[in-house]
Design goal:
rod-shaped, 11 strands, 36% helix, 22% strand, 3-stranded antiparallel β-sheet, 5-stranded mixed β-sheet, alpha+beta
Length: 289
């Protein structure tokens, strides 16, 4: 015997159930598949026919001036400084952004072209008022020979008389140089700053003579003698050699001149010269003339 429950289970297994549910499920699946296929086809068609969007940006040109100090900018973008130096200005050109179809990449093309490539350097002009002025340099008088003297008895007057006589008789220019001390006088004589002196006093100056004996030389014996001293002529060694070589008559006068017994300190140089013509002429009787 079978119960009612056994009979119901047997009918379902044998395919006697309601088929409406199965048909509905199958229809939904078929419809979904067809719709999906249509969507894929439409999307692909749209993707294929879609043209890339291109956007071209206008070229941007920018002039970047370089300003230094006081300058003037010309219409070509060239800066000329007040010193005359041209400086080139760099301009940025041809900046382009392009969207490549299918790659979506941006390419930037930039070039920098100098407008002025030659730099010209000009010498700055000096204003007239700023030009250095030429100053005249005083020219020291040039003498044939220089004679040193200092303040001691008989020395100054004899030096002045000898200067005038040498100039008149031998046509040589003589410069007299005064020194404050005897030490300075013999130092200058030894170094060659002066050529000779009539003011060597013996025996007072023997110490200076021995100190500079290698640089100075005696000329003659003496040119004046008193009870207290003798005055002698001493010359720089090189100067004496030059005088002997180039002016033998000058050396002859220096060796023969003698003021003893004819000179007094009360006489002026002009008085002595005018009152002793014969004696003076003997001093200048030169065998070498």
């Amino acid at each position: 015997m079978y119960s009612k429950y056994d009979s119901h289970s047997s009918n379902n297994m044998n395919g006697n159930g309601n088929p409406s549910n199965l048909k509905m499920i199958l229809a939904i699946l078929i419809t979904s598949a067809v719709f999906a296929t249509i969507l894929v086809t439409i999307f692909g068609q749209l993707t294929t026919n879609l043209s890339p969007t291109q956007e071209t940006l206008p070229a941007v040109q920018e002039t970047l001036p370089v300003v230094s100090g006081s300058s003037v900018v010309s219409s070509l973008g060239e800066i000329t400084t007040t010193a005359g130096i041209s400086v080139s200005v760099i301009s940025a050109q041809q900046t382009k952004i392009a969207n490549d179809a299918g790659s979506n990449t941006a390419e930037v093309v930039a070039s920098a072209t100098p407008i002025a490539q030659n730099v010209e350097v000009k010498e700055p002009q000096i204003e007239e008022e700023n030009r250095p002025t030429e100053t005249s340099v005083p020219i020291e008088p040039v003498y044939d020979y220089t004679v040193a003297y200092t303040d001691r008895p008989g020395c100054i007057a004899i030096t002045e008389i000898s200067q005038q006589l040498i100039t008149q008789k031998l046509q040589l220019s003589i410069g007299n140089v005064k020194f404050d001390t005897v030490v300075d006088l013999f130092t200058a004589l030894a170094s060659g700053d002066v050529d000779l002196t009539f003011c060597y006093s013996d025996p007072a100056d023997r110490t200076h003579m021995l100190e500079h004996l290698g640089e100075i030389r005696q000329v003659g014996i003496r040119h004046y003698e008193s009870d207290m001293y003798k005055l002698q002529i001493w010359a720089n060694g090189n100067s004496k050699a030059q005088i002997r070589r180039d002016q033998p008559c000058f050396l002859h006068f220096l060796e023969k001149v003698d003021f003893t017994d004819v000179f007094t300190e009360e006489q002026s140089p002009d008085e002595f010269i005018n009152g002793n013509d014969v004696i003076i002429q003997g001093w200048f009787d030169c065998p070498f003339s």
